[in-house]
Write a structure and sequence with these properties.
Structural class: alpha/beta
CATH superfamily of the largest domain: Dehydroquinate synthase-like - alpha domain
Order of helices and strands: EHEHEHEHHEEEEEHHHHHHHHHH
Distance between the termini: 37 Å
Number of strands: 9
CATH topology of the largest domain: Dehydroquinate synthase-like, alpha domain
CATH architecture of the largest domain: Up-down Bundle
Bound molecules: fe (ii) ion
Largest sheet: 6 strands, parallel
C-alpha cells in the first residue's frame, strides 16, 4: 500500500547553465529586494545586479554570510532589513547564505523571534517573496522547508522546519559552482549524497522520493570525483547540481536520518563543516543500518556503480565500502580522529545526538545511546570492518 504524502517544492525551479540570468525576470514585480550573497559569488553576479537595478528595483546587498550561522549573528540582520522594508528577499550562495535569507525573510518584521520558530511548524507567516540560488551542489536548501542554525550556547545545530521557508523561486546554475574549491565541492557533494541515501533508506521512504533519491545517488557517484579534479568540467558540475537538487527535493517529504543527527554535535561543538561531518559518519551509520533493509542498500551500491553480484547482503556491505571510496577519492578525511576531535568527547557527542529525535525517528534501524557511542567509536578509528 503506497502511503499518502505531501510534496511542497518551490513554485518555480530554474535549472541549468546560465539560469542565474532569470533572476531579472523574477524580480520584475519587486520594488525593494534584500539580497544576501556569498562573498566569492558577488563578482560573478555584479553586472547582472547592476542591470537589474537599472529596471528600477532598489537593492540592499549584504555579503555578511556566516558559515553554519549562529542564532545571535542572524538576529543582527532583522532591524536593518526591517528598516529597508523589502518586498523580496534573495539568498545567493551555499547553504548558509540561503538558510540565512530564509530565516531573515520570515523573521525580519519582528513578529516572531528565532526561539519562537525553532522546531517543526512554528513559523506563522511570510509576507515577502523569497528567491534562493544555490551556488554549491550540496545543501539542497534552495528547495527545502528547512533552515539550520547554530545554538552556540547549547553547542548544537538546530533546525527550523516550515512550509513558509520553501522559496517561491529556486535558481540552480551550475556555472556559478565552477570556481568552488575542490575541498568544498567534495564536502557539499557528500552532503548531497547523504541526503539521497538517507531519504532512500528512510523509515518513511516514499516511492516518489525513492526515484529522485536513487537517481541523485547515481548522478553524484558518477560526477563528484570529476568535479573535484576539474572544477571547470561543466558536464560534471551539472550532473552534481542535479543530484544535489534531487537530494534537496527529498528533504521536505522524507528528510534525513541518523547520519545527520550524529553529525550535528561535530558541527555544533567542534565546528566541523556539515558536509565533512556527514561524509565521515555516513559509512559507519550505513554499516549499522544495512541489516534492516539490505535490499535498499544493495540498490545504493548498484546506483554507485558497484557490479551486481546477485547477493543482496554482500551488495549492501559493498555499498558501505563504495561510499567510503567515493569520499576518499575526493580527499575528505575518513575518521573522527583525523578531524582532531578527542576520543573522550564521544560520550557527550552521543548524548547530544540522541536529542535530535526529529531525525533519529527517521532512521531505518532504532539507535540507542550505546549504539550511537559505538558508531562514533568506529568512525573515530575510521576502519570499516
Ligand atoms: Fe545535509
Amino acid at each position: 500500500m503506497i502511503q499518502a504524502t505531501t510534496l511542497n517544492w518551490p513554485n518555480l525551479i530554474e535549472f541549468g547553465a546560465g539560469k542565474i540570468k532569470t533572476l531579472k525576470d523574477h524580480l520584475e514585480n519587486s520594488k525593494r529586494a534584500f539580497i544576501l550573497v556569498d562573498p566569492p559569488i558577488k563578482p560573478m553576479v555584479e553586472s547582472l545586479l547592476n542591470e537589474i537595478s537599472r529596471t528600477g528595483v532598489e537593492f540592499k546587498i549584504s555579503t555578511e554570510v556566516i558559515p553554519e550561522p549562529p542564532i545571535n549573528e542572524i538576529k543582527k540582520f532583522f532591524k536593518p532589513v526591517n528598516e529597508f522594508a523589502p518586498d523580496t528577499v534573495v539568498g545567493i550562495g551555499g547553504g548558509s547564505a540561503m538558510d540565512m535569507a530564509k530565516i531573515i525573510a520570515v523573521l525580519f518584521d519582528g513578529k516572531q523571534s528565532v526561539e519562537d520558530v525553532i522546531g517543526i511548524g512554528n513559523v506563522s507567516n511570510r509576507d515577502v517573496k523569497l528567491i534562493t540560488s544555490s551556488t554549491t551542489s550540496g545543501t539542497g536548501s534552495e528547495v527545502t522547508p528547512i533552515a539550520v542554525l547554530t545554538d552556540t550556547d547549547a553547542k548544537l545545530k538546530k533546525g527550523i522546519v516550515s512550509p513558509f521557508l520553501v522559496p517561491d523561486v529556486a535558481i540552480i546554475d551550475p556555472e556559478l559552482s565552477m570556481t568552488l574549491p575542490a575541498p568544498i565541492t567534495a564536502a557539499t557533494g557528500m552532503d548531497a549524497m547523504t541526503h539521497c541515501i538517507e531519504a532512500y533508506t528512510n523509515k518513511h521512504a516514499h516511492p516518489i522520493i525513492d526515484n529522485l533519491a536513487i537517481e541523485g545517488i547515481r548522478l553524484i557517484a558518477s560526477s563528484l570525483e570529476r568535479a573535484c579534479n576539474n572544477g571547470n568540467d561543466l558536464e560534471a558540475r551539472t550532473a552534481l547540481a542535479l543530484g544535489s537538487l534531487y537530494g534537496g527535493m527529498c528533504l521536505g517529504p522524507v528528510n534525513t536520518a541518523a547520519v545527520h543527527a550524529l553529525a550535528y554535535p561535530l558541527g555544533g561543538e567542534f565546528k566541523i563543516s556539515h558536509g565533512v561531518a556527514n561524509s565521515v559518519l555516513l559509512p559507519f551509520v550505513m554499516q549499522f543500518n544495512y541489516i534492516s533493509s539490505a535490499k535498499k542498500y544493495a540498490n545504493v551500491a548498484k546506483a554507485c556503480g558497484v557490479k551486481d553480484t546477485g547477493d543482496v547482503e554482500q551488495m549492501a556491505s559493498l555499498a558501505v565500502k563504495k561510499v567510503r571510496e567515493i569520499s576518499n577519492s575526493c580527499k575528505i578525511p575518513s575518521s573522527i580522529k583525523e578531524l582532531g576531535i578527542p576520543e573522550n568527547a564521544i560520550t557527550e557527542m552521543a548524548k547530544a545526538a540522541m536529542k535530535v529525535t526529529r531525525l533519529l525517528d527517521n532512521n531505518p534501524r532504532e539507535i540507542t545511546l550505546s549504539d550511537a557511542g559505538e558508531i562514533y567509536r568506529n568512525a573515530y578509528d575510521g576502519v570499516i570492518k
